[in-house]
Design brief:
The chain has about 350 residues and is α/β, with parallel strands linked by helices. Helix content is about 30%, strand content about 15%. It has a 12-stranded mixed beta sheet. Strand 5, helix 6 and strand 6 form a beta-alpha-beta unit. Helix 2 runs parallel beside helix 3 and helix 3 runs parallel beside helix 5. The relative contact order is 0.17. The structure holds S-adenosylmethionine (SAM) and iron/sulfur cluster (2 copies). S-adenosylmethionine (SAM) binds next to strand 3, strand 5 and helix 12.
């Protein structure tokens, strides 16, 4: 039975973070030198994740995305994929990765039953990648993306966080690259959440500005008309190429949001911007039944009134949502813990 929140939004999408660790240090997500990590003994094992997924699916979830941190750092991830892919109620099993380890893992993940992969790729320039991520893995990421089609994956997406004077001159190149993969490129507005402690409004490139740039290059761009709760609005170039824009910062889409998040240590967040979550690990490890866990999740979702990004939009002097001191006190507030 699908559970609905106070705005009648169903719970359909669950993003499961499988680790808070990452092998990159993107400037918009992990700009600091050191981090407070979740204690290892609190990280859910695959059986625990699978049991929680069963409860979520009884309540209406039919789409799961594995994320992190960097999900491919989680040992034996294909074993989790196998467990989840076997669930009859699951319509979509996707993964978001930075691509560094994809070259070696695309095939085993495909064989385990993963449906789709989204790779985060902010630049096609190696030196820019190194400056942005503080790691020199650009060639590995491109090799990882190239490994997807031979491993049988279709429906690949490439996600690019667009930042002013950082990579906003690369939009057409990224679209051209996407065609060769093939993959649909989605441009994401820079958000003021989690570890984005260096965020400021002047670094945001709005959807409107992106479209203007792309129209200068490609001429008329048509919106793709479709019914969807997906975060990206899709557009079509004259030659038929489709790309997306996720305008979370300047034109948020909370009204149709059916997404929620489970951290690697089993805390359930009802909004990307939520400051508080609901602990599911505690009851799970104390032996709560499926019905008891379902009651906890239903109780939380049916009271959900979150519209985080819309509330942020109404602020006048907008600055990063959370300051570094609070992030250190509670790493659950980090984007790399919550999974994006
Ligand atoms: N490490 C994996 C990756 O980068 O794809 C998965 C986790 S990462 C937190 C998920 C997504 O969040 C990435 O596409 C990343 O670009 C996005 N993200 C992180 N911080 C962001 C920010 N401040 N604004 C917009 N997107 C952000
Ligand atoms: Fe970058 Fe993803 Fe790692 Fe964040 S979690 S630093 S977005 S690769
Ligand atoms: Fe959904 Fe919260 Fe994002 Fe709005 S801000 S789209 S409610 S997760």
């Amino acid at each position: 039975m699908a559970v609905r929140d106070v705005y009648q939004r169903p719970l359909r999408n669950l993003r499961i973070s499988v680790t808070d660790r990452c092998n990159l240090r993107c400037s918009y997500c992990m700009p600091e030198e050191d981090y407070v990590w979740l204690p290892r003994e609190q990280i859910l094992d695959f059986e625990e994740i699978s049991s929680l997924a069963d409860v979520f699916m009884e309540l209406g979830v039919d789409k799961i995305r594995l994320t992190g941190g960097e999900p491919l750092l989680r040992r034996d991830l294909p074993a989790l994929i196998r467990l989840l892919a076997a669930k009859p109620k699951l319509n979509d099993l996707a993964l978001t990765t930075n691509g560094v380890l994809l070259g070696e893992q695309a095939r085993p993940m495909g064989a385990a039953g993963l449906h789709r992969v989204t790779v985060s790729l902010d630049t096609l320039r190696p030196e820019r990648f190194t400056a942005l991520t503080r790691r020199a893995n650009h060639a590995q990421v491109l090799a990882g993306i190239a490994a997807l089609a031979p491993a049988g994956f279709t429906g690949t997406k490439l996600d690019t966080v667009v930042m002013r004077n950082v990579n906003d001159d690369e939009l057409p190149e990224l679209i051209e690259y996407g065609r060769t993969v093939p993959a649909e490129v989605r441009f994401i507005e820079y958000m003021d959440v989690g570890g984005a402690t260096r965020w400021s409004t002047d670094k945001v490139v709005s959807r409107a500005a992106m479209l203007e740039t792309l129209e200068r290059r490609y001429g008329r761009i048509e919106p793709v008309v479709e019914e969807s709760t997906a975060p990206a609005d899709r557009y079509r170039l004259a030659d038929g190429t489709i790309f997306g824009i996720i305008s979370s910062t300047t034109e948020p889409f909370c009204g149709s949001c059916d997404r929620s998040r489970l951290t690697a240590d089993g805390v359930f967040y009802l909004c990307l911007y939520a400051q508080q979550g609901v602990d599911l690990r505690g009851p799970l490890r104390r032996g709560a039944s499926r019905d008891e866990l379902a009651a906890v999740i239903t109780g939380a979702w049916s009271r959900r009134a979150d519209r985080g990004a819309e509330e942020r939009l109404r602020l006048r002097d907008r600055a990063p949502l959370v300051q570094i001191g609070r992030l250190r006190e509670d790493p659950h507030l980090e984007m790399h813990t919550r999974g994006g």
